[in-house]
Specification:
- The protein is of the alpha/beta class.
- Among the domains are: 16-86, 3-Layer(aba) Sandwich (Rossmann fold); 277-421, Histidine kinase-like ATPase, C-terminal domain (Heat Shock Protein 90, 2-Layer Sandwich), CATH 3.30.565.
- It is built from 10 helices and 9 strands.
- It has helices at residues 16-26, 42-52, 67-76, 88-239, 244-272, 275-279, 282-296, 314-335, 364-369, 377-387, and strands at residues 31-34, 60-64, 80-83, 300-306, 339-347, 350-357, 391-397, 401-409, 418-421.
- Helix 7 runs parallel beside helix 8 and helix 8 (314-335) packs antiparallel against helix 10.
- It starts with 15 loop residues before the first helix and ends with a strand.
- The relative contact order is 0.05.
- The structure holds adenosine-5'-triphosphate (ATP) and magnesium ion.
- Magnesium ion binds next to helix 8.
Length: 422
C-alpha cells in the first residue's frame, strides 16, 4: 500500500523483537505498529523505542482493533492511531500527516541545535571580546603611564639640550671672538715684522754710509792732522834751543805717541771700511783683514776664492765682506778655534762663501730663535744677505766646529781664472 502511494524507503517485519534494533540502525521517520503481536505486544515495543528516542518524540502510529487500546496507546507515547479494519485513504492521510509532523519536528530540532550552537559561539565570541577589551584597557592604562614617563623624559632632555646648546653657542662665540682677536694680532704682528725688516735694512744701509764717511774723515782729516803734528814736533826737536835734552826726550815720547795714534787710527779706519775693498777688491780686503786678526790671535787662516767674485756689484761685495767680518769676529770671540777656512766658490746660479772653523759648537736654532738685542751679529748677517736676494745657513757640529755659508745669486759669464790666497 505504501509502495503504491510513492513511498520508497520502507522496511517491515513480523518479529516485534527486531523493531527496536531496526529503528536504532535506521531511525525511521514513522513506525506503523500493530499492538497485538505474538511474544511481545506493541506497548512493550514502544517502551523499547522510548529508550532510543530520548528527546520524547515517538514517531509511532499504532494499528488496533480494540477501541480501549487507543487511549492507552496515545498515553504510552504513540502520536496517532488507525482502527481496524481501516480505510485505505484515511491511513495514507494519517501517514502523510505524521510524516509532515515528524519532518517539522526534525526541522525544529535542527534549528534548535543550531540556535544552541550559535548561542555558544556568540557567548564565546562575547567572552573573547570582553577579554580583548580588558587587555585593551590594560594596555591603554600602561600606555598612558609610559606616555607620561616619556613626556617627563622628553621635557628633561629638552631642558638639558637647551642648556648644552646655550653653552655651546657661548663657547662658539667666545672661540670666534678669540679667533678674530688672534687674526687681528697676527695681522698686526705681520705688519710689525714687515716694518722691522724694513727698519733693519735702513739701519744697515745708514750704518754703511756712516762708516764710509767716518773712514774717509779719519783718513783725510785725523790721520793727516796727526802726521802734520808729527812733522812739526820733529822740527821742534831739531831746533834744540831751550833746555835741550829734556825737551828732546819729551818730544821724542810725544812723537812716539803720535805715531802709535796714527797706526791706531789707521786700524779703526780699516775696520770701519777698508779702503782696499773699494780700491783693490774683496779678496785683498779679506786677506788683509785675516792678517790683522792673525796679529791679535794665534789662528791660522786659509782663503780660497774664485776671481768672478770681483765681478759682483759694490753692494754684493760689501755684503760678503761684512758677513765675513762678522763671522770671523765671532770665531775670534767665541769659537776658541785654531784654524779657519774661507772659501768663495761658484755653484749653480750663485756665488757661495763658506767660513768654517774648528772651534767649539753652539746651538744655532736656539740662538736664532732667541730675541737678544745684544746679539745682533747673526741677525745682521742674515739681513745683509737677504737684502741682495741671497741666503744664509749656519751649521755648528760638536767636535767639528761651525760653518757659516752665504749664497748670493750670480749669473755673469764665467771667467776661467782661479785665485788662491793663503
Ligand atoms: N763661530 C762660532 N763659534 C762658536 N760660537 C759662536 C760662533 N758664532 C757665533 N757663536 C755664538 O752665537 C752667539 C751669537 O752670535 P752673534 O754674532 O749674533 O752675537 P755676538 O757675537 O754675541 O754679539 P754681536 O752682536 O757683537 O755680534 C754668540 O754669542 C756665540 O755664543
Ligand atoms: Mg757676533
Amino acid at each position: 500500500m505504501l509502495h503504491d502511494a510513492g513511498y520508497v524507503s520502507i522496511a517491515s517485519t513480523m518479529d516485534p523483537c527486531e523493531v527496536c534494533e531496526l529503528h536504532r540502525q535506521n531511525r525511521y521517520d514513522l513506525v506503523l505498529l500493530d499492538l497485538q503481536m505474538p511474544g511481545m505486544d506493541g506497548f512493550q515495543v514502544m517502551e523499547g523505542l522510548k529508550k532510543i528516542e530520548t528527546d520524547g518524540y515517538l514517531p509511532v502510529l499504532v494499528i488496533t482493533a480494540q477501541p480501549g487500546h487507543k487511549l492507552r496507546a496515545l498515553k504510552a507515547g504513540a502520536k496517532d492511531f488507525v482502527s481496524k479494519p481501516f480505510d485505505l485513504g484515511e491511513v495514507l492521510i494519517r501517514v502523510y500527516n505524521m510524516l509532515e509532523v515528524r519532518l517539522l519536528h526534525l526541522e525544529i530540532k535542527r534549528l534548535f541545535n543550531q540556535l544552541v550552537a550559535d548561542d555558544a559561539l556568540l557567548k564565546k565570541e562575547i567572552s573573547e571580546r570582553k577579554q580583548i577589551q580588558e587587555a585593551l584597557h590594560r594596555t591603554q592604562a600602561q600606555l598612558s603611564v609610559y606616555v607620561g614617563q616619556l613626556e617627563g623624559l622628553v621635557a628633561e632632555r629638552t631642558s638639558e639640550w637647551t642648556a648644552a646648546n646655550k653653552q655651546l653657542e657661548a663657547s662658539v662665540s667666545g672661540l670666534r671672538k678669540a679667533n678674530e682677536e688672534h687674526q687681528a694680532l697676527l695681522f698686526e704682528s705681520n705688519i710689525m715684522r714687515e716694518k722691522l725688516t724694513q727698519l733693519t735694512r735702513q739701519v744697515i744701509m745708514a750704518q754703511e754710509e756712516l762708516r764710509k764717511e767716518i773712514s774717509r774723515e779719519l783718513h783725510d782729516g785725523v790721520v793727516q792732522a796727526l802726521i802734520a803734528i808729527n812733522v812739526e814736533l820733529s822740527a821742534l826737536s831739531n831746533e834744540a834751543s831751550l833746555g835741550a835734552r829734556t825737551m828732546k826726550k819729551k818730544l821724542a815720547g810725544t812723537q812716539q805717541l803720535v805715531e802709535k795714534s796714527v797706526v791706531e787710527v789707521h786700524r779703526y779706519a780699516r775696520n770701519l771700511r777698508p779702503a782696499m775693498l773699494d780700491d783693490l777688491g774683496l779678496i785683498p780686503a779679506l786677506h788683509a783683514y785675516c792678517k790683522t786678526l792673525t796679529a791679535r790671535k794665534k789662528i791660522e787662516f786659509h782663503l780660497t776664492a774664485i776671481a768672478e767674485v770681483e765681478t759682483l756689484g759694490d753692494d754684493e761685495r760689501t755684503v760678503l765682506f761684512r758677513v765675513a767680518q762678522e763671522a770671523l769676529t765671532n770665531v775670534v770671540r767665541h769659537a776658541r778655534a785654531t784654524q779657519v777656512t774661507i772659501c768663495i766658490s761658484k755653484i749653480l746660479g750663485a756665488i757661495r762663501m763658506e767660513i768654517g772653523d774648528n772651534g767649539k759648537s753652539f746651538l744655532v736654532a736656539k740662538i736664532v730663535a732667541a730675541i737678544n738685542p745684544k746679539r745682533l751679529g747673526i741677525l745682521g748677517m742674515k739681513e745683509r744677505i737677504e737684502m741682495v736676494g741671497g741666503k744664509l745657513f749656519i751649521e755648528s757640529i760638536r767636535g767639528k766646529g761651525t760653518t757659516v755659508c752665504a749664497e748670493i745669486p750670480f749669473t755673469v759669464k764665467e771667467i776661467p781664472v782661479l785665485l788662491n790666497e793663503a
